[in-house]
C-alpha cells in the first residue's frame, strides 16, 4: 500500500433528524476527487463512527467506496474497544472493497501496551487487508508507545500509523525506529506539514473537509521537499486548524460545511450543534479563508 498526501477524514452528512444523507455523501466524494484529495477515510472519528450502528457503519463505507469508483483509495475506519467487534468491522470493510482499514486504539478500557499489541495482532491475523494503527490519546485515554508501534510494524499487513498526538518528537522517533515502507501519517492538522517535512507520508485531515484543494497542495509541496511553499500554503489554513477544534470534532467542521452549503445541519447526540459564540468565531475564520462571502 502506498497512499500519500492529503487524506480527508470525511464527515458523514446527515439530515436535520440525524439520518444519513446519502445524496450529500456522494456529492462530497465527487468534490474531494475533483479537488485533488489523495484518499478518503470513511467513518473515522470525524465520520461519527461512535454513533453509527453496525449496519449503518458498513453501509456508509460501501456507499463511499461505490461513489469513489476506484478514483481514489478508501480507508475504512474499523477500530473498536472490543477486539471481536473490530475484527467484524474490518472483515466487512474488506468485503466491501476498502483499500485499507484505520483502527483506533481501544478506548475507555485502557489496555496495557501488551494488550494493545495482542489486540492489533489478532485483527491482523484474522483479516488480510492493509491496516493502519491510529493513536489519539486525547480522545481514547490510551497512548500507544513507540516501542509497541515498532513491534506491530513487523506484522506484514500492519502498514502504517496515524499519529495524532501533535508531538513532533514522537513523530521523529517513529520515523527513525520503524522500517522503511511503514507509513507514518499525521493526525494533527496544526503540525501536519512539519510532520511531513520530517519524513511523514501524509496527513489524515479534518481541515481537508473544508479546504481540500489547499490541503492537497500543501501536502504535495511538503512531500516534494518544498518547505517554503508548503509552509506558505499551510499558513493560510492555520486559523482553520485552530477553530475547527473550538468544540469537540466533528461539531465545528460539520457546522462549517453546513454554512458552506455542502451538507445539512444533522449531527447525532451526544454531540450537539455548534454553540452561538463559537459560530461567530468560526464564521469569521471561514470568511477570512475565502470560504464564505463577506457580508
TrEMBL record:
Pyruvate binds at residues 46, 204. It catalyses: L-aspartate 4-semialdehyde + pyruvate = (2S,4S)-4-hydroxy-2,3,4,5-tetrahydrodipicolinate + H2O + H(+). One of its GO terms (biological process) is diaminopimelate biosynthetic process. The active site is at 134 (proton donor/acceptor), 162 (schiff-base intermediate with substrate). It is found in: Cytoplasm. GO terms for cellular component: cytosol. PROSITE patterns: DHDPS_1, DHDPS_2. The record marks 50, 81, 85 as: L-lysine inhibitor binding. It comes from the Bacteria. Its main location: cytoplasm. GO terms for molecular function: 4-hydroxy-tetrahydrodipicolinate synthase activity. Pathway: Amino-acid biosynthesis; L-lysine biosynthesis via DAP pathway; (S)-tetrahydrodipicolinate from L-aspartate: step 3/4. The record marks 45, 107-108 as: Part of a proton relay during catalysis. The keyword Cytoplasm applies. Its EC number is 4.3.3.7. It holds the Pfam family DHDPS. Keywords: Amino-acid biosynthesis, Cytoplasm, Diaminopimelate biosynthesis, Lyase, Lysine biosynthesis, Schiff base. Homotetramer; dimer of dimers. Catalyzes the condensation of (S)-aspartate-beta-semialdehyde [(S)-ASA] and pyruvate to 4-hydroxy-tetrahydrodipicolinate (HTPA). Belongs to the DapA family. This is 4-hydroxy-tetrahydrodipicolinate synthase. It comes from Isoalcanivorax pacificus W11-5.
Amino acid at each position: 500500500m502506498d497512499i500519500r498526501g492529503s487524506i480527508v477524514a470525511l464527515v458523514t452528512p446527515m439530515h436535520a433528524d440525524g439520518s444519513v444523507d446519502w445524496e450529500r455523501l456522494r456529492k462530497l466524494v465527487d468534490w474531494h476527487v475533483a479537488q485533488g484529495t489523495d484518499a478518503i477515510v470513511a467513518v473515522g472519528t470525524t465520520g461519527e463512527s461512535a454513533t453509527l450502528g453496525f449496519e449503518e457503519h458498513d453501509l456508509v463505507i460501501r456507499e463511499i467506496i461505490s461513489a469513489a469508483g476506484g478514483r481514489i483509495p478508501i480507508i475504512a475506519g474499523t477500530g473498536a474497544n472490543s477486539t471481536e467487534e473490530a475484527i467484524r468491522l474490518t472483515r466487512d470493510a474488506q468485503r466491501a472493497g476498502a483499500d485499507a482499514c484505520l483502527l483506533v486504539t481501544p478506548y475507555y478500557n485502557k489496555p496495557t501496551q501488551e494488550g494493545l499489541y495482542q489486540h492489533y495482532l489478532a485483527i491482523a491475523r484474522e483479516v488480510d487487508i492493509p491496516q493502519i494503527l491510529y493513536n489519539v490519546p486525547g480522545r481514547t485515554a490510551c497512548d500507544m508507545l513507540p516501542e509497541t508501534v515498532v513491534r506491530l510494524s513487523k506484522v506484514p499487513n500492519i502498514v502504517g500509523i496515524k499519529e495524532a498526538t501533535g508531538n513532533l518528537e514522537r513523530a521523529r522517533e517513529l520515523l527513525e525506529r520503524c522500517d522503511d515502507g511503514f507509513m507514518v501519517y499525521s493526525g494533527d492538522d496544526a503540525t501536519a506539514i512539519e510532520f511531513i517535512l520530517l519524513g511523514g507520508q501524509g496527513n489524515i485531515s479534518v481541515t481537508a473537509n473544508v479546504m481540500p484543494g489547499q490541503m492537497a497542495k500543501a501536502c504535495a509541496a511538503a512531500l516534494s521537499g518544498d518547505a517554503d511553499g508548503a509552509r506558505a500554503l499551510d499558513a493560510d489554513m492555520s486559523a482553520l486548524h485552530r477553530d475547527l477544534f473550538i468544540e469537540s470534532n466533528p461539531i465545528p467542521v460539520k457546522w462549517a460545511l453546513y454554512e458552506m452549503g455542502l451538507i445539512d445541519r444533522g449531527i447525532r447526540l451526544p454531540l450537539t450543534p455548534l454553540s452561538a459564540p463559537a459560530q461567530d468565531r468560526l464564521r469569521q475564520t471561514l470568511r477570512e479563508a475565502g470560504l464564505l462571502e463577506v457580508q
